[in-house]
Amino acid sequence: MKLIDPMDYSLNPLLTSLQGNILKGHGREHTTHIFIHFDKDKIKSVKNWIRQFTAEYVVSFKQQLRERELFKRNNIPGKLFSSFFLTNSGYEYLGFNDVTSKLNDEAFVAGMKNRIDRNNDPVVGDWEKCYREDVHAMILLADDEKGRMGKAASVILQEIDAFARVCHVEYGNAIRNKYNDGLEHFGYVDGISQPLFLKDEVEDFHSYHNTTDNTVYFDPAADPELVLVRDPFTDDPDAFGSYFVFRKLEQNVRGFKNAEEAAGKKMFPDKMDEEKREIIGAMIVGRYEDGTPVVVDNEEGMIGSGKFNNFNYDKDPSGGRCPHFAHIRKTNPRHNFNSADDHLSHRIARRGIPFGHRDVDTALDPEGLQFPESGVGLLFMCFQKSIVNQFEFIQQNWANNPNFPSAFDPFAKNDEVDLIIGQPHQKPPRDYQFPFPYNSSGNLQVSMKQFVTMKGGEYFFAPSIPFLQSINSNE
Ligand code: N7H
What average pLDDT does the segment 207-211 reach? Predict the structure, then answer.
């Protein structure tokens, strides 16, 4: 496969059979996630409903692209968006007993609860109660109009009631800065760096960054095969699906901000240098709040920062500008450290959205006193071809690993467990070496705890639309 050209008519069968949101985010402001367990002995009703739900609600990638075009040309906003996902036990419930040989991703087959050793997740007993249950399916609803989404959700919940139990419902809500860039709860622009599968998006990247042949430092173009899997449960050769990871990650915003402030005061004790203290958070994330990569600049405010992604770490091998523990450097090193392993193969298509409400904006409470310690965070979601080689690889081999990349490269100083998502074996705090910026040498050693707690989640597959339409209640 190559980059998708939406105007290439020969791709029509692929675009109509693929669910939306996989090759490009749906971009809606609000989401509802309904986790379902089907009732025993209701298989006929379940099968009928899945077919009906698909026809009425599930949005194909073709439809998503058509809505994108309407928005671009006539400013007409998209309608309610919906997708449908099944777990391994969901497939088994539906009577597909050969799932493990056909959808043979080891992680998907086992389910997230049985992979806590891989990801170093908290024990299942510490997950939110609802995530301890055996989930069969998840429905994603997304809309810019919250009321319309709510109405659809209540209709769906009523329908489901006849043959399933709703284990729980989660809600996501985008938060934005003054430039309208999407944020996460620590206050940083999120969703800037993604693998791009559409030809026009790759062209936009080059035009935005004004690249010439010699000035491409990062290539976001990705073969759709990075996230697509031939749907083994239909003969349709153009039917593809994708493995999907869902994780509820709670953020201790106050803890993060206080730690940033305390370390910032140590690095820049002079009150005159107060603004420079933000570099601590930038070194933890790898970007300033506005998106400016810390490897490129040591203060925020770079023009175009909220979309800037044309950089790599080649000129900073030791981590003197952007520490190796920085979240975006850990999760995408933009470099092959191990010649036997292509880092590009581990990329994921991230589709997360913040959850939980908070009243105080980061900029309005610099001391962080009113920030929440719990109840807010990220509904992390991503698509991939292999959960083992993509999400789990990033979590285990890179984020949780205090010796990545120094195990491969002795010049790589200051690596540690990722301070955003790392889940170390030893309980925190751990010592982090923050390099002194502005041409100074040496490091400030700071002991820091983790600020993100995994509350539960599951592994799913987003089946192709032809498969969902073919589920037959007579079989
Ligand atoms: Fe991350 N954060 O606020 O610190 N992430 N992330 N993430 N993340 C990124 O470049 C964040 C999580 C990746 O290509 C940005 O798009 C938070 C998980 C990858 O340069 C910010 C949480 C995993 C990238 C955050 C969280 C990843 C990335 C910068 C959880 C995978 C792209 C914006 C609460 C296992 C790296 C951007 C690249 C970027 C944050 C979770 C992976 C601000 C708060 C679980 C691959």
Answer: 96
- Closest-lying ligand 1 atom to the alpha carbon of residue 247: 45
* Cα 331 to middle of ligand 1, angstroms: 7
Phi, psi for 16 (deg, rounded to 5): -80, -20
In degrees and rounded to multiples of 5, residue 466 shows phi and psi of: -55, -35
* Cis preceding-peptide flag for 429 (omega within 30 of 0): yes
Q: Is the pTM of this model over 0.85?
A: yes
**Considering only CA atoms, which residue is closest to atom 27 of ligand 1?**
331
The mean per-residue pLDDT over the stretch 423-430 comes to 83
Q: How far is the CA of 191 from the centre of ligand 1 (A)?
A: 8
CB 48, CB 40: distance < 8 Å: no
**Would you say 108 and 463 are in contact if contact means Cβ atoms under 8 Å apart?**
no
Q: Which one-letter DSSP state was computed for residue 152?
A: H
- Cβ count within 10 A of residue 321: 18
Q: Is the pLDDT of residue 367 over 70?
A: no
Task: Indicate the pLDDT class of residue 364, thresholds 50, 70 and 90.
Answer: low
Tell which atom from ligand 1 comes closest to the C-alpha of 284: 4
Ligand 1 centroid to Cα of residue 294, in Å, is 15
Rounded Cα–Cα distance for residues 454 and 128 (Å): 9
Q: Which among 354, 248, 350 has a CA at the least distance from the CA of 31? A: 354
The span from the CA of 401 to the CA of 395, in Å, is 8
Centre of ligand 1 to C-alpha 135, Å, is 26
- pLDDT of 250 reads 97
Percent of the chain scoring above 70 in pLDDT:
97
Q: What is the pLDDT of residues 291-318, one digit of tens each?
A: 999 999 999 999 999 999 999 999 999 9
421 CA → ligand 1 middle, Å: 8
Helix (H, G, I), strand (E, B) or coil at 412: coil
Rounded distance between C-alpha atoms, residue 423 and residue 395, angstroms: 8
Q: What does the angle CA 323 – CA 393 – CA 416 come to, to the nearest 5 degrees?
A: 25
| Tokens read off for 410 | 């002795």
- Which residues have CB under 6 Å of ligand 1? 184, 186, 188-193, 249, 251, 285, 287, 327-328, 331-332, 348, 350, 377-378, 380, 391, 394-395, 420-421, 452
Residue 470: is its pLDDT beyond 80? yes
